[in-house]
Amino acid sequence: MGTWGVGMMSNDTAWDIIGKTGNVSYCILHNLLKSKKAESKEILALAEHCLENNIVLEKPIVKAIMEYIDDELDQSELDNWKSPDERKDALLRFKNRLNGEKVDELDIIIDNLSVVEQISLGNKSRSEIKKLLISMNKTEK
User: Fold this and answer.
1) 7, 41, 52, 111: which has the fewest Cβ within 10 Å?
2) What is the pLDDT of residues 108-132, one digit of tens each?
3) By residue range, what is the domain housing residue 87?
């Protein structure tokens, strides 16, 4: 997964499924979970899209999504990513969000940056990108 970031929305599959579903993400997510025929990246992208749009996910749906996350946390899956540790951290943050825990919004933004976007930021470290985003936010106010 060399040209994409580690977040739920930073891969081709995520953008393909969101492009196809638009505002019906919850219905598609529900149906894909029932069919058990979806790729985990599709499920996670739709779940992220629902969270970003403040769509409440019912407990059985969250439970099913957690199983997909657990599959993605398997070391053999993590090893497919350029930065396995960063992918793991992004998945754990996503899991926390699904459980209703507060996660720093900047972490979510950074997780979903593509590698191309990271390069355009000068390949800065995660903490440097956070500082940059904070300073950009201050100048906008």
Assistant:
1) 52
2) 888 888 777 877 888 788 888 888 8
3) 12-114
